[in-house]
């Protein structure tokens, strides 16, 4: 609700820049006074390929969306940042699980562990 056009902002909703954005700016009120240059600098720290036109597009979308502030906005913002923290934790857990699976796979006579475009392949028992 806070960002009706959020799908235009980032190619991956759970990528580094997107996660930083949702955590730092859970609703447009947190972007007040933010310039495209400032937002670009922030996002470039996470992804050097971010260009100023991306920040301009985000700020334009926010402006064109109008007032998206809703009742209990502070609570909504807290929920958004909480969800981001949970997702970050889950991503860490998945990375740990992948490492453990890689260790286990070394003990099997199984060479193929992934295939481009198909994600992780695991042996079927």
Question: What does this entry look like structurally?
Answer:
The chain has 125 residues and is mostly helical. It has one domain. The protein has 4 helices and 2 strands, in the order ααααββ. The protein has helices spanning 16-24, 36-44, 52-65, 73-105; strands at 114-115, 119-120. It has a two-stranded antiparallel ribbon with strand order 1-2. Strand 1 and strand 2 (119-120) form a beta hairpin. The longest helix is centred in the last third of the chain and has 33 residues, at 73-105. The N and C termini lie far apart (44 Å). The mean pLDDT is 87.
Low-confidence stretches: none
How many angstroms does the end-to-end distance come to?
44 Å
Number of DSSP E strands: 2
- Which whole number gives the mean pLDDT? 87
Work out the count of structural domains.
1
Oligomer: single chain
Secondary-structure content class: mainly alpha
- Fraction of residues in β-strands: under 5%
Major sheet details: 2 strands, antiparallel
Number of helices: 4
- Rounded radius of gyration (Å): 19 Å
Helix percent reads 40-55%
In the sheet with the most strands, the strands line up as: 1-2
Q: What is the overall silhouette?
A: elongated
Order of helices and strands: HHHHEE
């Amino acid at each position: 609700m806070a960002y009706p056009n959020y799908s235009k902002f980032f190619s991956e909703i759970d990528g580094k820049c997107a996660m930083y954005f949702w955590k730092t700016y859970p609703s447009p009120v947190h972007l007040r006074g933010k310039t495209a240059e400032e937002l670009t600098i922030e996002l470039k720290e996470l992804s050097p390929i971010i260009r100023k036109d991306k920040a301009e597009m985000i700020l334009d979308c926010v402006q064109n969306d109008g007032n998206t502030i809703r009742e209990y906005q502070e609570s909504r913002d807290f929920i958004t940042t909480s969800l981001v923290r949970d997702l970050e934790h889950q991503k860490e857990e998945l990375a740990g699980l992948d490492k453990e699976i890689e260790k286990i796979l070394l003990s099997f006579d199984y060479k193929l562990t992934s295939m481009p475009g198909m994600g992780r392949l695991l042996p079927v028992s």
